[in-house]
């Protein structure tokens, strides 16, 4: 074949591929093909990934969609997802913005299955992180200096024995919603599920499910030492704070088993409210000093429904904390072993505690309708109104979550 014709054919193919990207949709298979497609993608591009195994260790940087035209990387067939297997980091994004990851699976990375650095306006939905290869401080999802992010309807299972399901370092304005976490029989001593730390601020955890989810299901703050407590935006430092975590909230979550449902660690202005806690193995809550310069103070534990049996203590309080500044209010307690002694003594006096009668939880951990516990926990009627007072902390991810909850409008069929 004439060399000019070969060159012309190749040029036409390349231009067609670029046009396809700019037109909105391209289908790819394999990690390198995905990397090339992301580098070429224009705002509004939708990259559909074929199912099957993809080589882990993928790094992509400086990919940017727009507010009204994000770049989407999605499974072509949700029933046959792309699986990113292995690598030091399974899937890594740096300096990216306005991206959507939908229906991807990450597994067997040596350090973190999904890692993001200095990114902003990112949605991760219908994704799964599982069976990390690393055994130490290894995370299912690791976010570093990421702002305006949403994790929605995702699952994380079996992360590192000293790591987190979702670890957030210096992140802001993020929402974790309708996600599921499970790590039964973890062998480490510091593993947790959700940890916004190192100055993380304006973080929400809403309507998630935790099943035997390691040592601390929700941990506000904690982590690295007192020198690492700066607040970050997506691409730069905002201001310093003396706490490892500030202005964080967890509501509407169901937490089953695990060592402790919540840990307040060098944090302030963090609310753990309207959650259902069932059978923690050691503590209901912990109040600790880990990773900040200021003593843990001014947090809340309220309107929760707690069903428990044998505990080492309802609350574990460490040094350099100020539990007397906490708000403990209107929780419902039921001690399976001795209902007459259901309401425990907390680190500070609780306002309006209730309990003593079996809430008769169903298979979804809803209390008996009309029973004494019906107004407490993750299924209480007052949850949404209480939650609405916090959504201004993470406006952009909450807007994205509401879009995902709203089915697309369909036009009526022609008559």
Could you list some keywords that capture this structure?
about 425 residues; mainly beta; 12-stranded parallel beta sheet; 37 strands
How are the secondary structure elements laid out?
Blueprint: H1 3-23, E1 25-28, H2 31-40, E2 46-49, E3 52-55, E4 58-61, E5 71-75, E6 82-85, E7 89-94, E8 97-102, E9 105-107, E10 112-117, E11 120-125, E12 128-130, E13 141-144, E14 147-152, E15 155-157, E16 164-169, E17 172-177, E18 180-183, E19 192-197, E20 200-206, E21 209-213, E22 216-221, E23 230-232, E24 237-240, E25 245-251, E26 254-256, E27 260-265, E28 267-268, E29 271-273, E30 276-278, E31 285-288, E32 300-302, E33 305-308, E34 315-317, E35 327-329, E36 332-335, E37 354-355, H3 383-388, H4 395-405
Parallel strand pairs: 1-2, 2-5, 3-6, 4-7, 5-8, 6-9, 7-10, 8-11, 9-12, 10-13, 11-14, 12-15, 13-16, 14-17, 15-18, 16-19, 17-20, 18-21, 19-22, 20-25, 21-26, 22-27, 25-28, 25-29, 26-30, 27-31, 29-32, 30-33, 31-34, 32-35, 33-36, 36-37
Antiparallel strand pairs: 23-24
Question: What do you see in this structure?
Answer:
- The protein is mainly beta and 415 residues long.
- Helix content is 12%, strand content 39%.
- It is built from 4 helices and 37 strands.
- Strands 1, 2, 5, 8, 11, 14, 17, 20, 25, 28, 29, 32 and 35 form a 13-stranded parallel β-sheet that branches. A 12-stranded parallel β-sheet has the order 3-6-9-12-15-18-21-26-30-33-36-37, with no helix packed on it.
- Strand 1, helix 2 (31-40) and strand 2 (46-49) form a beta-alpha-beta unit.
- The longest helix has 21 residues, at 3-23.
- The chain starts with a helix and ends in a 10-residue tail after the last helix.
